[in-house]
Amino acid sequence: MKLFLLISLCCVTGSLAGICQDAFKNSNDLSRPFFQVIEGQAIEIYYKKRTASQEMFGIKIYKNQDLRKKDLHCDLCVNTTLVEDGCFKIKSTLLSVQPRDELKYITLSKFTGKPEVTVAPSRKAEFTDYVIPASCVCKAPAGAGYCTKASTKITDYRPLFVFQEGTTTGVYLPKAPSTESVGLQALKNANFVPAKQQKVPQKLDLNVEQLSERDGCYALESNEPRFGLGDHVNFVVTGKKTDGKKIRTDPRKVYLNNYFIPSTCSCQQQQPQQNLVKPQPQKLAKN
Ligand SMILES: *[C@@H]1O[C@H](CO)[C@@H](O)[C@H](O)[C@H]1NC(C)=O
Q1: Do 45 and 128 lie in a common domain?
Q2: 58 in ligand 1 pocket by Cβ < 6 Å?
Q3: Assigned domain for 189 exists
Q4: Under 8 Å between Cβ of 98 and 38
Q5: Which residue owns the Cα nearest ligand 1 atom 1?
Q6: Which residue has its alpha carbon closest to ligand 1 atom 12?
Q7: Residue 79 C-alpha to ligand 1 middle, in angstroms?
Q8: From CA 75, how far away is CA 59, in angstroms rounded?
Q9: Is 258 within 8 Å of 37 (Cβ atoms)?
Q10: Domain CBM39: where (predicted)?
Q11: Which atom of ligand 1 is least distant from the CA of 77?
Q12: Are the beta carbons of 227 and 169 closer than 8 angstroms?
């Protein structure tokens, strides 16, 4: 448990001005923490301070663990009293999160004048797809970067998405030998309506009949449409198998409610600024 002592509670000013406001701006659930994860490197947790009497926020995170098991160990357990920009903030480099990891967590709160600690029911956050703030600069991963990640992690016509807020959308789907071609249809903040029920054909936000093949993946990199924090992206994978059978998956959803940043990106937020000059707050682009 000595490890807990090594957790760095970030107390550096400036570089993150605005993230608390941005993350919770359109949120209808302010009791949810916001995560910003840099793949394999660091995790930052923001929790809105909603009442003046909340003096402590704590979290217990269990990575890829079944909470019903007895031999639970907490992968990151930390409490903080530090409030920055309206949010309790925790930063740690002790928990490494990779694509498709699932974090189950329990949050704790302590209020002035109340001896007991309030414990919220457990919740989970999934880190399946990358969601990158507009302010980050990302080098395309060397070689087959995203394709390799998609191939080892995501199967059954479930592509790996790379959303950079307000700018690009990347889609990577491993190529199976029995697949002849795949396409992708996506809707932003709307559900697919069965064809029979459509009075007029539904306008898709993304409709690519055939993804191109690259590095052993079907890949797509598009500047349209623009997705941002808070968006739900509903998608189906379409296509054809080599035996002529059609592919059309059930609609599935990606919810862009946390930042998950590939290690190949560099973001202003990542570099702790030594408190000399406060940089201008970096505005995160929204739609
Ligand atoms: C956080 O606070 C709770 C409640 O006071 C306590 O039980 C727990 O041990 C603390 N965790 C850490 C890591 O200090």
Answers
A1: yes
A2: yes
A3: yes
A4: no
A5: 79
A6: 78
A7: 6
A8: 10
A9: yes
A10: 28-132
A11: 13
A12: yes
β-bridge mates for residue 239, sequence order: 182, 247
Q: Mind listing the pLDDT tens digit for each residue in 168-221?
A: 999 999 999 999 999 999 999 999 998 888 888 889 999 999 999 998 899 999
Q: Is the peptide bond before 121 cis (omega within 30 degrees of 0)?
A: no
Mean pLDDT of 253-282: 70
In this structure, what CATH number is given to the domain that contains residue 32? 2.60.40.2140
The response to whether residue 77 sits with its C-beta less than 6 Å from ligand 1 reads yes
Mutating to test ligand 1, I would choose from 47, 55, 108, 109 the residue with most ligand atoms within 8 A of its C-beta, which is 108
pLDDT in tens, 29-39: 889 999 999 99
Residue 109 lies in a domain: yes
What confidence category does residue 156 fall into, taking pLDDT thresholds of 50, 70 and 90?
confident
Expressed in angstroms and rounded, the spacing between residue 58 Cα and the centre of ligand 1 is 7
Task: State how many domains the chain has.
Answer: 2
Counting runs of H as helices and runs of E as strands, what totals does the chain give? 2, 22
| Among 80, 73, 69, 71, CA closest to 107 | 80
Q: Read off the pLDDT of residues 37-57 as tens digits, 9 standing for 90 and up.
A: 999 999 999 999 999 999 999
Residue 106 resides in a domain? yes
Q: How far is the CA of 1 from the centre of ligand 1 (A)?
A: 12
- Whether residue 4 is predicted with pLDDT greater than 70 in this model: the reply is no
The range of the structural domain enclosing residue 47 comes to 18-132
Instruction: Identify whether the C-beta of residue 10 lies closer than 8 Å to the C-beta of residue 274.
Output: no
pLDDT value for 95:
97
Instruction: Report, as an integer, the average pLDDT of 97-104.
Output: 94
Ligand 1 mean position, distance from CA 213 (Å): 51
d(CA 156, CA 172): 12
pLDDT band, residue 124 (cuts 50/70/90)? very high
Q: Is residue 101 part of a domain?
A: yes
